[in-house]
Amino acid sequence: MGNHGSNLEDILAEDMHHWYNKFMRESPSGLITLFELKAILGLKGMNENANSYVDQVFFTFDMDGDGYIDFVEYIAAISLLLKGEINQKLKWYFKLFDQDGNGKIDRDELETIFSTADLRRSDAESAELELLEEKSGRD
């Protein structure tokens, strides 16, 4: 496993016990697969872009690349998200959004971020706005 970029000592012993119990309740095998992560988070019916980001989150937390999130990786992720320095979090978010791993967030990746975050209008919203504009034009 090695150094995961998060300081595990920042989490108090009682917190560690809490997170261990939670982890083992969610995944009694001691390993979380991508499928299990989606089930734990209750992620169903996501669009393709959102699904892709959940996959990317999993792969950034699976630090040794074995296809599972073990307890050490789980704690490192929790530590990063809850107690990590801003620079650590920014690096993690960049890695998450740089889906092709080329060290840059290109236009397609940026468009995917916006569409996943629902910052663009959906087709239904666009159609509704067009109807409102037509109606106001007739009045």
UniProtKB/TrEMBL annotation:
Cellular component, GO, one term: photoreceptor outer segment
InterPro entries: EF_Hand_1_Ca_BS, EF_hand_dom, Recoverin
Keyword Metal-binding: yes
Highest taxon above the source species: Eukaryota
Keyword tags: Calcium, Lipoprotein, Metal-binding, Myristate, Repeat
SMART domains per the UniProt record, alphabetical: EFh
PROSITE patterns: EF_HAND_1, EF_HAND_2
Pfam family name, one: EF-hand_8
UniProt key word Transcription regulation: no
Residue intervals of the EF-hand domain: 49-84, 85-120
Any one GO molecular-function label of the UniProt entry: calcium sensitive guanylate cyclase activator activity
Protein name stated in the entry: Guanylyl cyclase-activating protein 1-like
